[in-house]
Every structure is written in structure tokens, then in C-alpha cells.
Amino acid sequence: MPNPWDVGSARLLESAGFEALATTSAGFAWSLGKPDQNVSRDELVAHVAMLASAIDLPLNVDSERCYPDDPGGVPRTVELLAEAGAAGFSIEDYNPDTGSLDEVTAAAERVAEAAEASRQEGEPLVLTGRAENHIRGVDDLDDTINRLIAYRDAGADVVYAPGLTDLDQITRVVEAVRIPLNVLALPSAPSLGDLAALGVRRISTGSLLAGAAYGALLEGARELREEGTSRYAEGGVWREALKSFD
Length: 246
Description:
There is one protein chain. The protein is of the alpha/beta class. It is 47% helix and 12% strand. The protein contains ten helices and nine strands. A hairpin with a 4-residue loop joins strand 4 and strand 5. The two termini are 24 Å apart.
């Protein structure tokens, strides 16, 4: 389930044959010229509506903490995402205002709020509960497992601990949570086949594709400015990609 950051990247990924896509909070924020965790709820909902209307695939939404401090809180966020065309969404336990992980009980209460709001929709959205430990400098697998179990028990359909790459650790999580586990496809992560063999049921790319695209843009710009050449465009790969828009 790769993560596009705009309509063009979503349509390209759809043409590549994937069966579902997901937004990326960081990639979308970068497309607006903002750092991650700085997109408003209105901006996110508009983004989801644009992507959902441009593709024929289920779209999962990286909705950060589901904007608990905005009007209507988590339930209203879920309602707005459903209206925008989302098929699923995630809720995470990292608070950028404090720079720390939320206490697990409070985080699980938000998951329960989100689950209840999702059930009120005509077609409930797939809810992913996220434990952010391993991308926030907290290398505590026991705490991660406890959090994921709490989110499962609060009503999450899928659980996700981005940053896990060790086969043994991933196996422990799969065996402990007993519901579908999402894994982030980091460069150091096992292959998709190996993850599937462990029992992982969903794999996403987070901001990695967006980061690679922006990195290629910057490298091309550097070459043009410093060397005066455009070798970055050799091979015409972009021409083949743009056929997807015909």
C-alpha cells in the first residue's frame, strides 16, 4: 500500500497495479512547503477528497492524531474523512506539541473514540492504531506491543509500529497482536515476501517515495546549476511515466 503525496503520484501508483493507496502526512506537508505535523485538518480533508476522486482504489489516510483539539475532535475528523471518500484512516500516539508519546490509556481512549465514530458511518472505515515508539527514539518493544494490544482492544482493525525492521521483533509483534499488522517498508526492512511469510498483512512506504522524488528533483537542480548539464533526464523514464496521464 504505497503512499502518494498528490493526485499525479496517486494516479501513477494506481497505474502501476497496486490494489490500495495511502496518504503520507510528511509527503503531503512537503508538497505544501511545510514540515510534517503542520497540516491543518481542512487541508488534509481537501487533499483526501482530491485523491479519492482521482483514483478508483481504496484510500487510507495518515490522519496523525485525528485532530483531537479541533472542533468536534476525533469523531468530527472521522466524519469528515468519510465524507471525503477515505476507506480507512490511522491514529497515532505521538504528540508534536509535547515532543513525546501520549500516555497509553489516553491514546487508547482516542482510538476508542475513532472506532465508535467509524461505526456510525454507513460503511465503517478501516481503523489503524499506530505506536510511534520506534521512529521517535523509543526502542522499547515491550511497550510497543502493550500499546498495540491496547489499541486493538479499543477497536483498531489494524495495528502499525513504523520503524520495526528486525525479523524476530516483527514476529513477536505478529504473534502478540493477533490482528493485521502494517509494517513500514524501510530500506533496512526485510523484503515484502519475507514479511508476508512472517504474517505481516499490510506494507506501506510512508514518506519514502515522496522523499526519493524530492531528492531526485534536488539532485537534478544541483547538476543544472553547478555543472550546466541535464544528465538527470537521460533515459526518458519520465516520458514513459507520463503516459499514465493520457
